[in-house]
UniProtKB/TrEMBL annotation:
Domain Four-carbon acid sugar kinase nucleotide binding: 252-406
Membership in a protein family: Belongs to the four-carbon acid sugar kinase family.
Domain Four-carbon acid sugar kinase N-terminal: 3-226
Pfam families: NBD_C, SBD_N
InterPro entries named in the record: 4-carb_acid_sugar_kinase_N, 4-carb_acid_sugar_kinase_N_sf, NBD_C, NBD_C_sf, OtnK
NCBIfam families: OxoTetrKin
Gene Ontology terms, MF aspect: ATP binding; kinase activity
Reactions listed under catalytic activity: 3-dehydro-L-erythronate + ATP = 3-dehydro-4-O-phospho-L-erythronate + ADP + H(+); 3-dehydro-D-erythronate + ATP = 3-dehydro-4-O-phospho-D-erythronate + ADP + H(+)
Protein name as annotated: 3-oxo-tetronate kinase
Length: 416
């Protein structure tokens, strides 16, 4: 293993695994600290740390970094969301600082940019499409409302040291100028450097300039330039994995309620059997899993979707009645139990919508590692795990994917 990634959620892990695989590295996604596998140049450890207390996120992330270093990794990437999901008391700063200490290095880039998904950083401010982050729906996020688009200021709330910044014109001045700017920031005692990037070319320049950085932090975009650093040194050469074909029944499970997921659910449900989970019945204990499993089995050869996706007022109503965390935990457990039951009774292709939902499903399936196949839509690859034989998955971040994503994903997973 040459490059190790610590990702703060499961869909984010498959997002950056996709970038590295596309860059030509033989890539494996691990669910937490895994067991080493052969033929792996980039190892991505998926954690479920995005919304937990900083001290817990630090200890899990440091343990993951230690494991990756033991596998031989020469560079560590800390992957968080391209919308910098965190609170002022959040854990991105503390985890980044703890990793700097562990790696005995002085400086790390902070760059959540992912231009392919519309996330760009200019003058330290994060944009989604043509809007500042704080003017998008992210300001209403239930756990991590992003009310300030200035990443320098947001990060400063989370760190003890002074946050540095490198503007786009320095990035555009080229690799040598950027290296000089990193040195100057380091000499000024700044450890975390918010670095502008608005296009893939910027991320390639940053990747080249950071070839010898032991720690890099960012979204999946920051990984675009990294495989080339290893290739240039003649370090890449793992033989392409022979990925088994995945054949058999499929299912779509969606626990994401984002606007993008709502549209994707509606598109898929227009031509497939669909089952809307009655979350109030689930909370009351009136929705036995075997009823849902029996309904799925009644659909015969058609591929159904089971979803809890709902509009904000419906969600708010259920949360008021039963409590936000209790509802989230119960729905995640429902999808996790259903996925395990289906995988043990013949289902071979599972497409999941939502990061938390994906984490719960993958953990329930006990897939300690998954090979990364080709890209379905930006940021979402095919994953192949093993449970009773090859199992094909796609884990979709709430905001990712085209309206026909679910149909496309079932097809691509089957073509693995
Ligand atoms: N109808 C519902 N009412 C209340 N909570 C729900 C409902 N449906 C799903 N949830 C919960 O909302 C959360 C959705 O989070 P998840 O991470 O899966 O999706 P997302 O936030 O859209 O995706 P991402 O994190 O990738 O952006 C889960 O904890 C899920 O259990
Ligand atoms: O960076 C992103 O936007 C995604 O990989 C993600 O982490 C969403 O949960």
């Amino acid at each position: 293993m040459l490059l190790g990634v610590i990702a703060d959620d499961f869909t984010g892990a498959s997002d950056i695994a996709n970038t590295l695989a596309k860059g030509g590295m033989s890539t494996v996604q691990f669910s937490g600290i895994g067991q080493a596998v052969p033929n792996c140049e980039a190892g991505v450890v998926a954690l479920k740390t995005r919304s937990i207390a900083a001290c817990d996120a630090v200890s899990q992330s440091v343990a993951a970094a230690r494991w990756l270093l033991n596998q031989g990794c020469e560079q560590i990437v800390f992957k968080y969301c391209s919308t910098f999901d965190s609170t002022p008391q959040g854990n991105i700063g503390p985890v980044a600082e703890a990793l700097l200490d562990l790696l005995g290095t002085e400086l790390a880039i902070v760059c959540p940019a992912f231009p392919g998904a519309g996330r760009r950083i200019f003058m330290g401010h994060l944009f989604v499409g043509d809007q500042l982050l704080s003017e998008t729906g992210m300001r209403y996020h239930p756990l991590t409302p992003m009310t300030d688009p200035d990443i320098r200021r947001w990060l400063a709330h989370q760190t003890s040291g002074e946050v540095g910044a490198i503007a786009l014109d320095t990035v555009r001045a080229g690799t040598d100028a950027l290296r000089g700017a990193f040195r100057a920031a380091r000499d000024a005692g700044r450890r975390l450097i918010v670095t502008d990037a608005i296009a893939d070319e910027d991320l390639l320049t940053i990747g080249a300039a950071a070839a010898d950085h032991k720690l890099i932090t960012g979204g999946s975009g920051i990984a675009q330039g990294l495989p080339q650093n290893f290739r240039a040194k003649g370090r890449l050469g793992a033989r392409p994995e022979i990925v088994p074909t995945v054949e058999g029944p499929g299912i779509v499970l969606c626990g994401s309620c984002s606007a993008t997921s709502q549209q994707q659910v509606a598109t898929f449900a227009a031509s497939h059997p669909s089952y809307a989970v009655d979350t109030n019945a689930l909370m009351r204990g009136d929705l036995p899993l075997h009823d849902v499993a029996a309904w799925i089995s009644d659909q015969g050869r058609q591929t159904p979707i089971v979803y809890s996706t709902a509009a904000p007022d419906t969600i708010a109503d259920t949360q008021t009645r039963f409590g936000r965390d209790a509802v989230a935990e119960r729905i995640e457990r429902f999808f996790a139990d259903l996925a395990r039951h289906l995988a043990d009774t013949g289902t071979r292709r599972i497409v999941v919508g939502g990061g938390e939902t994906s984490g719960a499903v993958v953990e329930a399936l006990e897939l300690s590692s998954m090979r990364v196949g080709r890209e379905i839509d930006p940021g979402v690859p095919v994953l192949i795990g093993d449970r009773n034989g090859p199992l094909g998955l796609a884990l979709k971040s709430g905001n990712f994917g085209a309206p026909d994503f679910f149909e496309k994903a079932l097809h691509e997973v089957g073509q693995a």
